[in-house]
Design goal:
Elements (H helix, E strand, L loop, with lengths): L19 E7 L3 H14 L4 E3 L8 E6 L4 H23 L5 E5 H7 L1 H6 L5 E3 L7 H9 L5 E3 L7 H4 L10 E5 L1 E2 L10 H5 L3 E2 L2 H13 L4 E5 L7 E3 L5 E3 H9 L6 E5 L8 H9 L6 E3 L7 H6 L6 H14 L4 E8 L6 H14 L3 E6 L17 H26 L3 E9 L5 E5 L5 E5 L8 E9 L4 E5 L5 H6 L4
Helix pairs in contact: 9-10, 13-14
Bound molecules: S-adenosyl-L-homocysteine (SAH), iron/sulfur cluster and FE3-S4 cluster.
Length: 474
């Protein structure tokens, strides 16, 4: 077996390292980011080391997202570009394997090969552990390989242990798939039904991450708070319990989780926010709409009042919790009154930030064929109004942080000389001027200024004796 060569610097002037090179392009949610890491891990034993540029790569994987129309269309324009790269490399005597992974691969399958016959491998999100076998088949030039099964075996049981260090803040997938079938959404079709990874496997992966230097873990799942498993005693457990077990790992400072569904916010999870210091006071809880009529049409199976009640319980448990959400405007049947109800819910709750989208009909989903589709210009106008309100709320939330002192976990250097950047508990990037030795530490910072998407501040010397010592003038 070939040992993986060390990763080479990005310059094209660098001599080509022996062995094979892999270039990955990742779109979509954080679960795709995590999956791309796993695909790199599974290919490393075959000798594939990372390549920063597609024209340096013997294999290119495009990990795709199908959530909205534009996301899917982007795939074919990118493939057009990669076809030229593949052609140029072939002319220079270097074959290239081109693979399409992710949710577009799952949804479109053979259609991808019909539109882009130069693609060698099409693989769905549940078959990444079979990549080595697919690469072998593609290398034998036996024709294109399609694998979009939902295999009975769980891919996580067959993937190698997460090997490449993930850095100070890492993702860890604990749950996949969705059984909720919201009217507008492709995820249940592209990712399959809900499945939770066993607690022991999650804890083992978290231990490895912490041993490699990770200090903050974000637990991932399409419905992460639907996670369920068994404790060591065999008793059924939910996410609140799992976070308690993870928080006990020495060296792990912070825990986050995303994305949650309002129906799965149980008491144990809310209590975790109150009782476990490592659980950050931050929650992304998509509501989509503030209108009960539209929530019912969306098959969300909760009302606006249920959502408000959940938020009230969370705020009672953790008064400084920052809330973010997802909104869709222009779902079929949405009237001006429905939209007004969404604005009212936003005003009542006050979000720290949010993602908002125009409804995009997805083939095969119930809403795509529903009557009373909302005209594009109406969607445009509603989106602008909603985003203006959300921008104001974000600015107000950030402004409110000025003057506060908060712990910041420093993770990297900033764009400006002497700048070091980390995250606040509320996920805002925070920069300070300080030595690079701050990286890896969680230190108290007094927030002094707000910018559009970040904050800046100064270290609080009294609360950070170690850091103060290190702040000797250069
Ligand atoms: N599991 C999460 C979100 C998954 S998709 C949840 O239950 O909320 C991420 C976001 O994309 C969704 O919250 C929704 O706001 C948006 N989205 C999904 N399908 C969409 C569509 N067809 N059109 C527009 N936005 C969509
Ligand atoms: Fe999609 Fe709804 Fe499932 Fe979220 S809960 S992934 S929006 S079907
Ligand atoms: Fe996109 Fe698939 Fe994630 S559709 S949002 S990549 S689950």
């Amino acid at each position: 077996m070939t040992a993986p060569p060390p990763p080479a610097p990005p310059s094209s002037a660098t001599p080509r390292a022996p062995g094979r090179r892999l270039h990955m392009i990742t779109w979509g949610c954080q679960m795709n980011v995590y999956d791309s890491g796993r695909m790199a891990d599974v290919l490393a034993p075959l000798g594939y080391a990372p390549a920063d540029r597609p024209d340096d790569a013997d294999m290119i994987i495009l990990n795709t997202c199908h959530i909205r129309d534009r996301a899917a269309e982007k795939v074919f324009s990118e493939l057009g570009r990669l076809r030229l790269v593949k052609q140029a490399r072939a002319e220079a005597g270097h074959p290239t394997i081109l693979a399409v992974a992710g949710c577009v691969a799952q949804a479109e399958g053979a259609e991808i090969l019909a539109r882009a016959p130069y693609v060698d491998i099409v693989l769905g999100p549940q078959t990444y552990h079979r990549l080595p076998e697919m690469v072998a088949r593609a290398s034998r030039a036996a024709g294109a390989v399609i694998d979009t099964d939902f295999p009975a075996e769980q891919k996580f049981d067959h993937l190698p242990e997460q090997s490449a260090p993930q850095g100070l803040a890492a993702f860890l997938t604990i749950q996949e798939g969705c059984d909720k079938f919201c009217s507008f959404c492709v995820v249940p079709y592209t990712r399959g039904s809900e499945a939770s990874r066993p607690a022991a496997a999650i804890l083992a992966e978290a231990r490895r991450l912490v041993a490699q230097g990770t200090r903050e873990i974000t637990l991932l799942g399409q419905n992460v708070n639907a996670w369920h498993g068994a404790g060591p005693d065999g008793a059924p457990r939910s996410l609140g319990w799992l976070m308690r077990a993870l928080a006990d790992l020495p060296g792990l400072l912070r825990l986050r989780y995303t994305t949650s569904h309002p129906r799965d916010m149980d008491d144990e999870l809310i209590a975790a926010h109150a009782e476990i210091p490592a659980v950050m006071p931050f929650l992304h809880l998509p509501v989509q709409s503030g209108s009960d009529r539209i929530l019912a049409a969306m098959n969300r199976r909760h009302s606006a009042a249920d959502y408000r009640a959940t938020i009230a319980r969370l705020r009672a448990a953790r008064p400084d919790i920052a809330l973010t959400s997802d909104f869709i405007v222009g779902h079929p049947g949405e009237t001006d009154a429905d939209f007004a109800a969404t604005l009212a819910l936003i005003r009542d709750i006050g979000f720290a930030s949010a993602f908002s989208f125009k409804y995009s009909p997805r083939p095969g989903t119930p809403a795509a064929g529903a009557p009373h589709q909302v005209p594009e210009p109406v969607k445009d106008a509603r989106l602008q109004e909603l985003q203006a309100l959300l921008r104001d709320q974000q600015a107000a939330f950030n402004a409110d942080c000025v003057g506060r002192t908060a712990p910041v976990l420093f993770t990297h250097t900033g764009r400006h000389p002497g700048q070091v950047v980390g995250r606040s508990p509320w996920l805002q990037p925070v920069h300070v001027i300080g030595p690079t030795s701050l990286i890896g530490q969680e230190l108290m910072v007094k927030i002094t200024t707000t910018h559009t998407n970040s904050l800046s501040g100064t270290l609080v010397p009294a609360s950070n004796p170690a850091a103060t010592q290190e702040r000797t003038p250069a």
